[in-house]
Amino acid sequence: MHALASRLRRLPPSCGPVRLIGVDGHAGSGKSTFAGRLARALGGAPVLHLDDIASHEELFDWTGRLLEQVIEPFSRGGTARYTPYDWRARRFGPPRALPPAPVVLMEGVGAGRRALRPWLAALLWLELPPEEAWARGRARDGEEQREFWDGWVPAEREHFRRDPSRPHANLLVRSGQKEQEGYEVLAGPAGTGPQGPDPHAE
Fold first, then answer.
1. CATH top-level class for 2-54+103-187?
2. Gap between the Cα atoms of 63 and 60, Å rounded
3. What pLDDT, in 10s, does the model give residues 73-100?
């Protein structure tokens, strides 16, 4: 993980002074866990969770809000201020500051969408079949969220049908079956490019 982190630090900035790294994959694929570990390997890099940007009413129609609250301020070298969504209270909370950093991880379903790719230094895709990822997510969230998942699955299918991320991933990330096995990092469909992350950095 530290080798991958080192490689990401050496990428050119992509959004103002920020190297914005997208971490995408199906819901339940382990994006948050992976992003957290990568953030620690990066020395405490900020992680923007797209669950804070989306809402019940806008599961995927949040591009404008993200561009306005995060991408545009970063592109000017300024501090982003976004209003995280409370999924239990069903409302947006008070603004939260996100200062620009050398590397910022942006994790969530749709992190590699078409409108965001021009701002990404690299796109990582958590490689897990959708049915397996969704089963993990349902098991994690329990019966309380069953109705939500019943609506989420077709919405996610439609999103990736219209705006797929995986074909544009620089790296594919596979987690080991056991906690201690770590991650396997492979070249993605988009290739790593001359300055992209080295798939053998792990």
1. alpha beta
2. 8
3. 999 999 999 999 999 899 999 999 999 9
- E strands present in the chain: 19-24, 47-49, 80-82, 85-86, 91-92, 96-98, 103-107, 122-126, 171-175, 183-187
Q: Which residues pair with 98 in a beta bridge?
A: 80
Helix, strand, or coil here: 23?
A: strand
In three-state form (DSSP H/G/I as H, E/B as E, the rest C), the secondary structure along 54-109 is CCCCCCCCCHHHHHHHHHHHHHCCCCEEECCEECCCCEECCCEEECCCCEEEEECC
Q: For 119-150, write each residue's pLDDT tens digit.
A: 999 999 999 999 999 999 999 988 888 899 99
Domain ranges of the chain: 2-54+103-187
Are 95 and 81 a contacting pair, CB within 8 Å? yes
What is the tally of helices (H) and strands (E) in the chain?
6, 10
Phi-psi region of 34 (alpha: psi -120 to 50; beta: other; left: phi over 0): alpha
Q: Write out the two tokens for 74.
A: 């970063």
C-alpha to C-alpha distances, 45 to 12, 40, 105, 109, 131, nearest whole angstrom: 16, 7, 7, 20, 31
